[in-house]
Design brief:
The structure holds two protein chains of two kinds. In chain A, 34% of the residues lie in helices and 14% in strands. Chain A is an alpha/beta fold. Chain B starts with a strand and ends with a strand. Classes of the chains: A alpha/beta, B alpha/beta.
Chain lengths: 331, 424
């Protein structure tokens, strides 16, 4: 199979087969993360432009590390230091970057659709590292990889998402990916943050429902995805942390309503004591650190796939320590 | 003398739908008679209109010409050339220029520029409040004397219910219609499109239909209080139309207009392409269907383009940052033919009404093809195929979602005050 897209802007347009292909492509790169020497020469001579128009620490470091572990060079543009502050248009900024001849552009931007807009104007591949409240495709892939490792398969799982789903690009990418494997979604949070239109954003026939009582929402869950609640700002309308904690904080007692082998994901950074208790965050059910490691693997595979040009599946670097069957990353 | 020969005259005012010769002398219509009855002398210019429709001159109640102040996006000269090529003989320009048309000197400037450069009649609309800021009432009487045809704070609603009431009281005494951009700005704050499944899927901030309809409801109540004439601009929501229907049933002087893009496109068409970004935003499918029903049954009084040019540098940005508005003059008639007439929703007579007697009634004027009337005529075809190429537009801007669309029928000639202002 070859990947039919030049860019990775969203998971919504990808089929289950294409998503499986992307996840499978990440597996050898997962193995590399366990090697004492992690650096490959696969993309030596290539340059990856990292343009983060919105503040980001972990995603930027993750993409940067992924590029360097493939042997690629990086160019960095960050919002604070950039010409954006001087009033340059997005198009002028990315055309300037493009003129420095990178082989690929990884971009994050506060406006939904910004990566899509830029991709229409550039020849090089664009990877969306998060656009506004639209999608965060590499996060969706790393979450799915983590779930598949733990559960053995993505088919027919019950997924509960907690928090401000309306403003979450992570939730959207997860829904677009996992719904194609028959997963059923329960969305739970304050009603203002979980508008009814969310029930209709998935592919045809997708099972997405809203439940406003957390105990009920967690019933029979295989996977609980906890979203970050930013108490300091955002979230229209604002809600007091006390109210959120009272109604929606994921604690051990509430987690008992989920299946006994349920896993907990969080895209980070966590607000311990707000959306999740430390006890749950540090429990064996929590996958947060595996998510981070898998993030590098997913991003290495995306950079490899999109910047090395059209290639055969077999030319993907094979790792010595490739895990057999469905690896459980905790073992 | 100009003889428009052998055309099918469609005139809603006189309910004429027949082949007629129309003779113009100077800026007046002098004769409308059965073909062949007019004895022409050698000095008579002939316009062969066989196979074409001859209608009263089309009026656009809602346009932005950007002069003074934003001439890089449009001028009175370029905008009216686009209007002429769209079949419009008169256009009402909204006051949100820089400076705002909130006093007689700006009104006179616009009319002077129009006299010097315009291809069609320019009828300015004055601001309701000073600077359209929603605080003090503008110099409406002085502007009326200078030539405004209506008042509006378009771009936004008149800020408060109290000021709206006062403007209505004042305009009633001056016999001017108040045109409202109906929007509850708190409900619409930050929104870049209509709220719905599409906005939720795209992660774009949406405004609910109620952002428009609560303002229409407020204004209808104020019409009941004041007796003023209210015209709802670019009505987009089913719920708003229901408010207008309710008002009309009560006999209140409330009218409304619908834009071609709102009866053609819906929110599902938005794909991060700023050419689909306007305010009010593209609505839901059921709103579009309700608008078409209202255009057919008379609840809607006029089609208005809301021609809103923005130069490419302003529009070619992230969807969130792009200004609201799209071009409208050149595609309005063709979209009405495509979506309404050819689709079997309304008759040709009704379509002509929506562009002529409908808007004229909103302004309180007459529009018909009869001896003694102004020689303003729109000649169009219902059959010829053509493709809109925005790069060829006389407008200074390029922000049209209809670029590249092929139409069946459209403007052939625009005659303003007896002169051919545009010919295909």
């Amino acid at each position: 199979m070859t990947f039919r897209f030049r860019d990775l802007l969203a998971l919504e347009p990808l089929s289950a087969d294409e998503l499986t292909f992307l996840l499978d492509q990440s597996r050898p790169f997962q193995a590399i993360q366990r090697n004492p020497l992690k650096k490959l020469a696969t993309l030596r001579g290539k340059t990856v432009a990292l343009a983060f128009f919105e503040n980001s620490t972990r995603t930027r470091i993750s993409f940067g590390t992924a590029a360097s572990r493939l042997g690629a060079d990086t160019m960095n543009l960050q919002a604070e230091s950039s010409s954006v502050k001087k009033g340059e248009s997005l198009l002028d900024t990315v055309h300037t970057l493009d003129a420095m001849k990178p082989d690929c552009l990884v971009m994050r931007h506060a406006a939904s659709g910004a990566a899509d807009f830029v991709a229409r104007h550039l020849e090089i591949p664009v990877i969306n590292a998060g656009d506004g409240t639209h999608e965060h495709p590499s996060q969706g892939l790393l979450d799915a990889l983590t779930i598949r490792d733990r559960k053995g398969s993505l088919s027919n799982l019950n997924i509960t998402i907690l928090g401000d789903i309306s403003h979450s690009r992570v939730a959207r990418s997860n829904i677009h990916l996992l719904a194609k494997f028959g997963c059923r979604f329960t969305l739970c949070g304050p009603a203002m943050w979980v508008p009814r239109e969310l029930e209709s954003i998935g592919p045809p026939g997708a099972s997405i429902r809203r439940v406003f009582r957390i105990e009920e929402a967690l019933e029979d869950a295989d996977v609980v995805l906890v979203l970050r609640v930013q108490t300091e700002r955002l979230h229209e309308p604002a809600l007091s942390a006390a109210d959120y904690i009272l109604l929606y904080q994921l604690n051990s007692e509430r987690l008992r309503h989920a299946k006994s082998d349920a896993i907990v994901l969080h895209p980070g950074p966590m607000n311990r004591g707000v959306e999740i208790t430390p006890e749950v965050a540090d429990s064996p059910q929590s996958c947060v650190l595996e998510q981070v490691t898998n993030g590098i693997a997913v991003r290495m595979s995306l950079l490899f796939l999109l910047t090395s040009g059209p290639t055969e599946e077999t030319s993907a670097p094979s790792a010595e320590a490739q895990p057999k069957e469905s690896a459980n990353a905790t073992d | 003398m100009l003889l428009i020969k052998g055309g099918r005259v469609i005139d809603p005012a006189t309910q004429t739908d027949a082949t007629r010769d129309v003779l113009l002398d100077g800026d007046k219509i002098v004769e409308v008679v059965q073909p062949g009855k007019i004895s022409q002398d050698v000095s008579t210019e002939i316009f062969e209109a066989t196979g074409l429709i001859v209608a009263p001159g089309f009026i656009d109640l809602h346009a932005h010409l950007r002069e003074p102040g934003q001439e890089s996006s449009e001028t009175i000269e370029t905008g009216t050339r686009a209007a002429a090529s769209g079949g419009f003989t008169a256009i009402c320009c909204m006051p949100n220029t820089k400076p705002v048309n909130d006093n007689a000197s700006v009104t006179r400037f616009i009319l002077d520029r129009a006299k010097a450069t315009a291809s069609v009649r320019v009828w300015p609309i004055g601001a309701a409040s000073v600077g359209s800021k929603g605080e003090a009432i503008a110099e409406i009487a002085a502007m009326k004397q200078a030539g405004i045809v209506a008042v509006s704070d378009d771009g936004k609603p008149i800020a408060t219910a109290k000021l709206t009431r006062q403007v209505m009281d004042y305009c009633r005494s001056l016999d001017l219609v108040v045109i409202e951009h109906s929007e509850d700005v708190s409900l619409a704050a930050g929104a870049v499109m209509r709220e719905g499944v599409t906005s939720t899927r795209l992660g774009l901030a949406g405004m609910p239909a109620a952002a428009e309809s609560v303002c229409v409801a407020r204004d209808v109540q104020l019409v009941e209080l004041t007796g003023a004439r209210l015209h709802v601009a670019h009505l987009s929501a089913k719920a708003s139309l229901e408010q207008v229907r309710w008002a009309k049933q009560r006999g209140l002087p409330v009218t409304c207009e619908v834009t071609p893009h709102h009866f053609t496109l819906i929110d599902e068409d938005v794909q991060y392409d700023s050419r689909y970004k306007m305010n009010p935003p593209l609505a839901a499918r059921e709103d579009r269907d309700a608008l078409i029903a209202g255009l057919a049954d008379g609840a809607v009084d006029a089609i208005a383009t809301d021609h809103a040019p923005h130069e490419p540098a302003l529009k070619d940005v992230e969807f969130d940052r792009a200004p609201f508005g799209i071009l409208g003059f050149e595609t309005g008639m063709a979209l009405a033919l495509e979506q309404l007439v050819h689709a079997g929703k309304i008759s040709l007579m009704r379509m002509v009404e929506l562009f002529t007697t409908g808007p004229a009634r909103v302004l309180g004027i007459e529009r018909k093809i009869a001896a003694g009337q102004p020689a303003d005529l729109t000649v169009f075809s219902t059959t010829h195929e053509w493709t809109y190429d925005v790069k060829q537009s006389p407008s200074k801007s390029r922000n049209s979602p209809f670029d590249g669309r092929t139409f069946k029928g459209g403007p052939v000639a625009t005659i303003v005050a007896g002169r051919i202002g545009y010919k295909m």
